[in-house]
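Weekly structure sync, notes
Attendees: PL (lead), two postdocs, one rotation student
Agenda item 3: pending single-chain targets
PL asked that the sequence for the first pending target be pasted directly into the notes so everyone works from the same version. It is reproduced below exactly as submitted, 315 residues in total.
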Amino acid sequence: MILSCAPLQGYTEFPFRNALHHYIGGIDRYYAPYIRFENDGSIKNKYLKDIHPSKNQGIPLIPQILVNQADNFLRLAKIIEDFGYTRVNWNLGCPYPMVAKRKLGSGLIPYPNEIQRILEEVLPKTSLKISIKIRTGYEHYQEVQAVLKACSSFPLDEVILHPRIGKQLYKGTANLDAFAQAQYVTHFNLAYNGDITDAKTFEGIQLTLPQTNHFMIGRGLLMNPFLASEIKSGSSLGPGLKREKLRDSHEYLMEHFSKTLSGEAHVLHKMVSYWEYFSQVFENEKKVFKSLKKSHQLGEFRIAVERIFNEETLK
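Predicted structure, written out during the meeting:
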């Protein structure tokens, strides 16, 4: 079984990947948040920095791209290949309207012929193994089936399917029936992504989808960084070891952002955004997050974090 970390913009970039991989573990593959071109054809340095090998040492990383044209696909593939990677993931799932309305991400799903045309042009011109991350549709759940059919003749490395439609964004629940229907109509061994928030939920999904051997976890890893290791071991770490590992990974993030962000306010905002999820590892999660959210200075925040690690009970 493969457990991977989903790409989440603003959260799972290289600082989080390093903290999770080196202090906690449990993840077999990491997918970087997507790289894309700006309107002027440039690429933001932050995208390139995030996947640079020097920032991901020892981490099994697969870069992801957001494109809707073959030439842009190949330009990004060349950069990724030059960095030494052998795989790339094509984002066909991003649901946000500002992306989808430009026929990017999930907005490209209703156009299977265009997806087919891009792959026909790209595959002979790159040595990278190509996978796609896709939703079950943009308007309705059956749209993905036409895409899978259009892709059926290509040697795709993998298809990762999130069983929501683009217009849902992240509302409602993942549709396991739609995932199973997609499995039935394709020869690809689909990887599953969506709503894996705890070990019990994972067990239910695994029982429902017995043919699936790759599961991608997103916000569940932010809510509980130990989730992947708990799924693999079948048990939870002891409270002492869990506290120690969480403290170490948190200190890594604090040190990194203190060095790289400009001003205490930015560091504080960034760390509080992580603790909106991390707080859910504790029994009294609302109290934990409230005590951190009301911090106005980094010194207050550090004191509050220390109190939490010393006094609050982990789940």
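Discussion points:
- The chain has two domains: 2-233, 239-311.
- The chain has a mean pLDDT of 96.
Action: rotation student to compare against the earlier draft before next sync.
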